Amino acid sequence: MINLIKAEQYKLLHSRCFWGMTFGSSLLSSILLLDSRQLTANLFYAALYNTPILYFLTIVFAAVFVGEDFGNRTINSLICAGHSRSTVFFIKGIIYEIGSILILSVSLLVYGIYEMITGALPPIQFLQDCIMAFFSIIAMCSLPLLCSFVFKDIGRTLAVPMVLFFVSIFILNNDQAGTIATILPMGQLRLISLQALSVSNFTMIIIDILWVAILSVLTYAAFRRTDLK
Predict the structure, then answer these.
(1) Is 57 a domain residue?
(2) Is 222 within 8 Å of 208 (Cβ atoms)?
(3) Which tens digit of pLDDT belongs to each residue from 42-77?
(4) Would you place residue 150 in the very low, low, confident or very high pLDDT band (cuts 50, 70, 90)?
(5) What's the mean pLDDT in 145-153?
(6) Measured between alpha carbons, how far is 165 from 54 in angstroms, rounded to an integer?
(7) What is the rounded CA–CA span in Å between residue 5 and residue 33?
(8) How far apart are CA 76 and CA 228, in angstroms?
């Protein structure tokens, strides 16, 4: 397992796609601040408000980081080398989620630290919002991971989550999307940024944990039934 972790970590850190998406996410987030800054209390919340829009980058990342490994039979080779499916699933999933969090959170950390230095954002509030955003991002990125293990290629791993992404954006832009936004991780990020959560922080985290648990079980079940010959 240790060797597999090192291999996946090496792959992530030496991936031009990953670093390109991380830079692109930070750049896009800064550009989008021109609109969202007027809707939120400070730059940190403005960047958080834009995070759901940047979700498409983690969809692309899932297609490249996991879907491509099915296409070039890397995962087949890992299984043939003696690694269990549960180990491969767990490590691929963890490294993917870490990569996705980094892609989406660099600008959040930069603007959050800046707002704390200027005194516009209390450190405790920043920490609390980061924890909630952390759970929402993990839940949000579990769907592309599921699709990558279900479809086992780049094309459909991109297409299906992208369709759901645009549907979710459409739903969240509805004036009566309050209840749905509380349930959807993308909506939760918007509510946090607007400081308009209608449920407790604990309830929101439980909802995210349920999303992660359900999607993870479905992902592993699909992987268990995959014919890798």
Answers:
(1) yes
(2) no
(3) 999 999 999 999 999 999 999 999 988 888 888 888
(4) very high
(5) 92
(6) 10
(7) 36
(8) 6
- The answer as to whether 115 is a domain residue is yes
Helix (H, G, I), strand (E, B) or coil at 149: helix
Length of the chain: 229
Q: Give the range of the structural domain holding residue 161, as residue numbers without chain letter.
A: 2-224
Domain count, the chain: 1
| Dihedral angle computed from the Cα positions of residues 130, 41, 59 and 92, in that order, rounded to the nearest 10 degrees | -10
Whether 147 maps to a domain, the answer reads: yes
Going by C-alpha positions, the residue among 20, 84, 123 that lies closest to residue 228 is 84
Return the structure tokens found at 205.
Answer: 């985290």
Residue 72 counted as domain residue: yes
Give the C-alpha separation, 67 to 128, whole Å: 34
Tokens read off for 106 = 């660099």
* 21 close to 65: Cβ distance less than 8 angstroms: no
* Owner of token pair 């969240």: 172
